[in-house]
């Protein structure tokens, strides 16, 4: 039996991102992926939101993805677009990048970090006890892990084996989705009920085309065929555009469910294993990647013995509300897309409000993930929010905040005068950086905030504490997030 600190079940975007985070934290991790490779058919999951690009920037790899996609300065909501160009971020845009292109780039980075991915292998069962989890694989072998993380999708075997309830709402709508060639140039664009036709190569245009069409009813049990797609195109457009040569044809629904708990003992869930919902707003992949960034450093610290096991409970308390909000806003968008007269009236009223600056900023902040605020208690307005990527002046030369997070270690950013601060027992876990800064402290939605004298930044880029270095809350924050010390901090 092979033993590892962590076994990740599922090598999609969430599992790969989690593997990278654990590797950066020094944890022994292996990924089990049922596919033979990272190659994907189809054009599913078409974009990265601003906060996802930021977390990749925090690890120094954002440009690998940005250079492969197309930048659009907006996010989509209920069939309209919301401008992001005035948001205080280096990445005020949606990056159009299909999952089939995103995954291989991410897998390449994970490989550079030395993580092993066991392709072509499925998990058939698992059993946990007080000290670990046994994972039975389809090749007849068993892995032993201190912790297992299910990143294995909406039908997650890991979630079911752990006995975690997956409550929610049954689907109300069903869509055909396909990648096809067309003999006649199609009517490209969105349809009022959702879906539409667009080129897979969004930069160059032309075929092949992605097709998304609302179909009648839900609960279909037969696989959609090319003939069935032709009928749906004729019903929607009056022609089938000479559709032919499908790469693939499938369907999706607005099934909406969330795991009651993201942790059950030594088993944790992330990504679609923890939450499924309609694709409106393109939030699924992004939410999963951000789950991984929240969980990775915490789990790495626990397996290293730096932090107690109860640190993992903060993963659920922080990310479950984020997932619940995604479920709510996707259900709202489904309702706004209905074509009956009352729904149209509601949609028109909502879109009128979104034309006003404040509602537009709030909604765009929500969809992009830039407004995420973990409830870490009372304190500075920065507390629990993403740290702005300030331009910094240090003794070593100019840098910026995100560059300090490339190794996924926490940072105490000392911006006051005079410098000279002793981290004491946390010095081997937390990097202290003395710096001056340029620019305003501005947060999406909130606007400008008062600059603190110092900021404690978690590896995920969220602020764990902000204030003056003499604040007695600082040692408590250091202990809470990065393990026990002796509480003797000196300046």
UniProtKB/TrEMBL annotation:
Residues 5-330 form the FAD-binding domain. Its cofactor is FAD. It holds the Pfam family Rng_hyd_C. This is FAD-dependent monooxygenase. InterPro entries: FAD-bd, FAD/NAD-bd_sf, RIFMO-like. GO terms for molecular function: monooxygenase activity. The keyword Flavoprotein applies. PANTHER family: BINDING MONOOXYGENASE, PUTATIVE (JCVI)-RELATED, TRK SYSTEM POTASSIUM UPTAKE PROTEIN. Keywords: FAD, Flavoprotein, Monooxygenase, Oxidoreductase. NCBIfam families: PRK06834.1.
């Amino acid at each position: 039996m092979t033993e590892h600190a962590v076994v990740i079940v599922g090598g999609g975007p969430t599992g790969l991102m989690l593997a990278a985070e654990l590797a950066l934290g020094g944890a022994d991790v292996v990924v089990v992926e049922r596919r033979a490779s990272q190659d994907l058919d189809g054009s599913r999951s078409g974009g990265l939101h601003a906060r996802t690009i930021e977390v990749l920037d925090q690890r120094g790899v954002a440009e690998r993805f940005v250079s492969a996609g197309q930048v659009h300065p907006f996010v989509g909501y209920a069939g309209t677009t919301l401008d992001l160009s005035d948001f205080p971020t280096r990445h005020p845009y949606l990056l159009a990048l299909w999952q089939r292109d995103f995954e291989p780039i991410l897998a390449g980075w994970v490989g550079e970090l030395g993580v092993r991915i066991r392709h072509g292998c499925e998990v058939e069962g698992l059993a946990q006890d007080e000290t670990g989890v046994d994972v039975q694989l389809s090749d007849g072998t068993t892995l032993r892990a201190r912790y297992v993380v299910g990143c294995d999708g909406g039908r997650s075997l890991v979630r079911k084996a752990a006995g975690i309830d997956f409550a929610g709402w049954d689907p109300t709508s069903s869509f055909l989705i396909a990648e096809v060639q067309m003999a006649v140039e199609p009517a490209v664009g969105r349809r009022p009920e959702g879906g539409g036709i667009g080129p897979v190569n969004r930069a160059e245009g032309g075929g092949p085309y992605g097709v998304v069409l609302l179909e009648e009813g839900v609960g279909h049990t037969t696989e959609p065929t090319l003939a069935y797609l032709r009928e749906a195109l004729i019903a929607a457009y009056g022609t089938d555009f000479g559709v032919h040569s499908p790469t693939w044809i499938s369907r999706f629904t607005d099934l909406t469910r969330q795991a009651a708990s993201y942790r059950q003992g030594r088993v944790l869930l992330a990504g679609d294993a923890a939450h499924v919902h309609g694709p409106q707003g393109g939030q699924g992949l992004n939410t999963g990647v951000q789950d991984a960034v929240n969980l990775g450093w915490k789990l790495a610290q626990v397996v290293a013995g730096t932090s107690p096991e109860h640190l993992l409970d903060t993963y659920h308390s922080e990310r479950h509300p984020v997932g619940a909000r995604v479920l709510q806003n996707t259900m709202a968008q489904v309702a706004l897309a209905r074509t009956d007269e009352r729904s149209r009236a509601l949609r028109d009223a909502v879109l009128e409000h979104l034309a006003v600056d404040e509602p537009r900023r709030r909604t765009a902040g929500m969809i992009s993930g830039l407004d995420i605020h973990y409830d870490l208690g009372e304190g500075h307005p920065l507390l629990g929010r993403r740290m702005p990527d300030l331009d910094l002046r240090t003794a070593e030369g100019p840098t910026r905040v995100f560059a300090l997070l490339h190794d996924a270690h926490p940072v105490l950013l000392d911006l006051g005068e005079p410098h000279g601060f002793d981290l004491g027992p946390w010095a081997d876990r937390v990097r202290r950086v003395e710096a001056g800064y340029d620019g305003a402290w501005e947060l999406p939605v909130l606007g400008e905030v008062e600059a603190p004298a110092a900021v404690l930044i978690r590896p995920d880029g969220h602020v764990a504490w902000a204030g003056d270095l003499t604040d007695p809350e600082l040692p408590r924050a250091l202990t809470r997030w990065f393990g026990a010390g002796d509480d003797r901090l000196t300046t």
